[in-house]
Amino acid sequence: YVKAHGSNHYQFHEPGMTAAAAERLHLENDLREALLRGEFELYYQPVLDTERLTVCGAEALLRWHHPEAGLIPPDRFIPLAEETGLIRPIGTWVLREACAQAARWRRLGLTGMTVSVNVSGEQFWRDELPQAVRQALEAQALAPDALVLEITESVLMHGSANTETRLRELKAMGVGLSLDDFGTGYSSLSYLKRFPIDTLKIDKSFVRDMVRDEHDRTLAQTVIAMGHGLGLQVVAEGVESAEHLPLLRRARCDRVQGYHFSRPLPARALSRWIQQHQCSRSPQD
Ligand code: C2E
Ligand code: MG
Ligand code: MG
Ligand code: MG
């Protein structure tokens, strides 16, 4: 978006400043205030048991309600938040908000429900992360195993020796650890074996096309078998059609997530979706 801004935004453009740079500056200024103005919202996408299709948890996905541009997806502002360091206060807010929602679901009787939160590299390497996680759990008196932290493969493969220490510190708190976007980075299998992670999430780029592309199908099946070989639970993200299910069941994938079941939804809409889903689901589904 390149729109006029309110009077509290400074409007100067350096001579020679490109439109893209000007837009970025605006977005950055807006991002600084978004937290204070309450413009962020967490959407939640259900994660289901592959066999029984019961809801096991939900992934929290951040949305920004920009006053002029409307709903902005995370790919458009998370990179900027990382570059500017704003991801730290935003990430802390996400942790608190997701834990509050998990506590609400548990009070509604969804006792086994977990909530997954994406943690970027910029947060993962900060000393304050364990403390922020602990505080978010304590504020809700939430059992640590209700929270899963999703960390991408590329983040884990950067930090070498420190990675293991940091993961153990988080694991010792009792939270779940999940390796996100698996298959898009360069994991060394020996690392995977050493890291105290619980879950592999197969990247949606392999899952999406596995129905019609034999190559992707083989890759997905191999990743599932490998994950199980390492004692990990495996989640397939990007499940977009009913045809995925028999394939993923045959490969014994533990959990499924994708548009076929539900898009990410505001918290209350997801609560309603879960109720309807549980009523309408036939036992042999
Ligand atoms: P991710 O963690 O891999 O999340 C999955 C993304 O795939 C989400 O996009 C989700 O809406 C989308 N998705 C789910 N099912 C399907 C499907 O069946 N088909 C397709 N094509 N896509 C599907 P979203 O919400 O736009 O988020 C994009 C990325 O932004 C996330 O990828 C994550 O890396 C990042 N992100 C989101 N929320 C946060 C956050 O609170 N903190 C941080 N640090 N990163 C976040
Ligand atoms: Mg994720
Ligand atoms: Mg992912
Ligand atoms: Mg991603």
Automatic annotation (TrEMBL):
Domain EAL residue range list: 24-278
Part of the intact protein present: 573 to 857 of 857
Protein name as catalogued: cyclic-guanylate-specific phosphodiesterase
Coiled-coil boundaries: none
Organism of origin: Alkalilimnicola ehrlichii (strain ATCC BAA-1101 / DSM 17681 / MLHE-1)
Source taxon at top rank: Bacteria
